[in-house]
């Protein structure tokens, strides 16, 4: 069985099935597209027999009979499997995607969370396959805004570590309060770590202090703690304390990872 051809391309967040059709490219959307482009696939390395097995299991399973289920192919940038309920929710009678849109009050937060999740996963790529994004937000379905719960789990990564296939499971949330905000959690189901809220990536002051960024920049230049202490006229102990806090705040193991992560987040740009 071969994957069906792609009749459309739509932007997804963390391969997320969020039905955002991009008509204009604001800064966040551009940033998201750049993240997608950072993955470089080799078609010959992708084994579509694996996809066929996933589709076979999902097609026969009754576990998700009440959910909108889909598989998104990051190489082809389209869905390669959709459950009947997914089509019912998001397609019209002609099989085309309707103008399903995220609520304008939720849109920015949803997009930010998706970008932050991708950055986090790309940085901690040894846990990529164990990542699941769970979130709630409002989207337009059949002319009315409804709150949905969306779970996105990575199904397959390629030999290069790229995110290849992702599974999306969408349910109408039992919480239909109009006052509820966007809820997001990135869960590592191998370690049990929960990463939330994701939007802290976009408030740089809440990640590292100015002094910590300054010290990390010196580390990036290859300077030792003793040299940094002399440049900043502080003690070596203070420098080492800042270095430890940097590792803790970024949730990394060493300075090399900290620099790479900070570069990804744009903390070292200025």
In words, what does this structure look like?
It is a single chain. This protein has helices spanning 27-37, 48-60, 84-90, 104-123, 210-220, 225-232, 236-250, 255-265; strands at residues 68-73, 78-82, 131-141, 144-157, 163-172, 183-188, 194-195. A hairpin with a 4-residue loop joins strand 1 and strand 2 (78-82). It is built from 8 helices and 7 strands. Helix content is 36%, strand content 20%. The protein has 2 domains: 27-200, PAS domain (Beta-Lactamase, 2-Layer Sandwich); 203-265, Arc Repressor Mutant, subunit A (Orthogonal Bundle), CATH 1.10.10.10. The protein has a 7-stranded antiparallel beta sheet, with helices on both faces. The protein is of the alpha+beta class and 270 residues long. The chain starts with 26 loop residues before the first helix and ends in a 5-residue tail after the last helix. Residues 1-25 have low confidence and may be disordered.
Main sheet strand line-up: 2-1-5-4-3-6-7
Question: What is the annotated CATH architecture of the largest domain?
Answer: 2-Layer Sandwich
* CATH top level class name of the largest domain: Alpha Beta
Strand content: 15-25%
Number of continuous helical runs: 8
Share in helix: 25-40%
Provide tags for this entry.
alpha+beta, 7 strands, Arc Repressor Mutant, subunit A, 270 residues, 2 domains, 7-stranded antiparallel sheet
């Amino acid at each position: 069985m071969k994957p069906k051809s792609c009749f459309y391309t739509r932007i997804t967040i963390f391969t997320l099935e969020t039905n955002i059709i991009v008509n204009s490219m604001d800064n966040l959307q551009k940033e998201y597209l750049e993240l997608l482009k950072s993955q470089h696939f080799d078609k010959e390395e992708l084994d579509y027999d694996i996809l066929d097995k996933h589709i076979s299991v999902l097609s026969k399973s009754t576990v998700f009979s009440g959910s909108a289920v889909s598989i998104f192919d990051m190489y082809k940038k389209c869905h390669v499997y959709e459950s009947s309920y997914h089509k019912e929710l998001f397609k019209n009678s002609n099989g085309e995607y309707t103008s399903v849109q995220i609520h304008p009050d939720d849109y920015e937060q949803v997009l930010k969370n998706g970008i932050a999740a991708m950055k986090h996963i790309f940085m901690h790529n040894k846990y990529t396959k164990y990542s699941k994004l769970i979130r709630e937000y409002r989207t337009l379905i059949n002319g009315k805004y409804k709150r949905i719960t969306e779970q996105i789990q990575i199904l397959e990564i390629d030999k290069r570590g790229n995110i290849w296939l992702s599974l999306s499971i969408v349910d109408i949330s039992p919480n239909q309060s109009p006052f509820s905000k966007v809820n997001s959690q990135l869960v590592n189901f191998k370690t049990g770590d929960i990463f939330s809220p994701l939007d802290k990536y976009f408030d740089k002051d809440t990640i590292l202090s100015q002094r910590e960024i300054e010290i990390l920049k010196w580390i990036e230049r290859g300077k030792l703690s003793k040299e940094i202490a002399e440049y900043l006229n502080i003690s070596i102990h203070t420098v080492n304390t800042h270095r430890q806090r940097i590792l803790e705040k970024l949730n990394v193991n060493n300075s090399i990872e900290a620099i790479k992560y900070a570069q990804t987040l744009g903390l070292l740009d200025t």
